[in-house]
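Troubleshooting entry. The earlier prediction with iron/sulfur cluster gave an output that would not parse, so I re-checked the input for stray whitespace and re-submitted. Clean input:
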Amino acid sequence: MSMFCFQCQETAKGTGCELMGVCGKTPEVSNIQDLLLFVTRGIAVYNDKLRKEEKASKVADKFIVDAMFISITNANFDFEAIKNKVKEGLLLKSELAGLLNFSPADLPDECTWNGDESTFMDKALEVGVLRTKDEDVRSLKELIHYGLKGMAAYAEHAYNLDETDDEVFIFMQYALAEITRTDITVAELIPLALETGQYGVQVMALLDSANTGRFGNPEITEVNIGAGKNPGILISGHDLRDIEELLQQTEGTGVDVYTHSEMLPAHYYPHLKKYKHLVGNYGGAWWQQKEDFESFNGPVLFTTNCIVPPSRNASYRGRIFTTGASGLDGAKHIPERKNGQQKDFSEIIEMAKTCLPPKEIESGTIVGGFAHAQVMALADKVVDAVKTGAIKKFFVMAGCDGRMKGRNYYTDFANELPKDTVILTAGCAKYRYNKLPLGDIGGIPRVLDAGQCNDSYSLAIIALKLKEVFGLEDINDLPIAFNIAWYEQKAVIVLLALLHLGVKNIHLGPTLPGFLSPNVAKVLVENFGIGGISTVEEDIEMFLAG
Ligand code: SF4
Ligand code: SF3
């Protein structure tokens, strides 16, 4: 075994990638990410202790968030960049150690290890997931770890929009410190996992306020999926500050901007859709990028996950740029903002001018923008439709898309749902059904897209408001079923957040996480009614009966 990773839904054989990541992550990258997480946990322990002396470091707050985000599935494949981050982390760790007024006796290995570069790869092999021998403790520690990675991603986007929440940083560091403990028990880890969900809600609320505060509330928008005549830049990932700056810098240059995958919801925000050269959304979900990028013809900018490493002969290889937590060896990385200046996208814009316009691969429009404020503006209509029986049930089908063949289930499920049901979606899971002609119910589209995966928060807010309107005691008494698709760790924080909000009977597919040990899975089934998926027919029958 040269690596071990089981953090995503596509993990090899459903149990773990051991030779090479199904995602394309090499053993070297996987191991250096493990080392980065190890050093990061050490930083968290120190900062947690320094906080008690009122000396917590803001630099550490940011470093931890960056490092966790870097290790999310499909975010960063750049070995050198991650190694440099480890070195930066080691320096920061010893700085923090020097700030403490006392020398704690029982520091974990995460704090005391301070190897030089020549020892990195040997140490990396000791500190990955399998360092925890007990499979239930390992399962819960990783569940929390993955939830924290999702939390870090959302905290980073909010940070980029100048919004932070100290409580989120404090919890993240406390939880990371807790999972360094070798004596921690299952009984302690279960409540910690649920508490992670509580801060998951908090960080999604923070990001919602950062996004809507700067860009306005998402509104119903028809998004063009065709192509125009100008050369274009395709922007992917989740960071709205990046797309805003790209739009500002491309204005008047004759270069159009298109969104890909999780950047689609940028079109729903008033202060982003106002840019006339934000022309449309190009292609499908992240895993279709190989075909989409070939035909796009212009440069592609990744602001976050999900990157699929291009093959050696991919024509678009030299057209890929990364920024933020994302990285890919061989791709140009656009550095962070400095001294209040914008990121400099000029090289991408100059490249775009030399490229052919995108080839049109489809035409028409898709509709979205049904985040909480917009749905609440339609509340009377929605409530009436429920009261008259025109809408019998809502299906929350938020989450991620992925390559697995079995994900056709979600297309079939959407197609087969009775016509008096409405799908509430968020995240790239929507690409399995957002171009189907599913119609509407009295003017309410049967697929209501709230936005990115973090906008699952909107779906929770909508559910809580409906609970209030219908005077119900329990969110589970609403006519809402949860059939969530997951892939990477942002879906883990969304799941933990829903559990924290008291949502029961969530079905998770296309397969249950490989990191859940049988005993941990049993706890989730018995206490929260979590289940997998079966056939479309059986599941629709089960959901409609429930
Ligand atoms: Fe495997 Fe997923 Fe880890 Fe990639 S992220 S190495 S596919 S488990
Ligand atoms: Fe998709 Fe990667 Fe998860 Fe933000 S872009 S939802 S998979």
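This one parsed fine. The radius of gyration is 23 Å.
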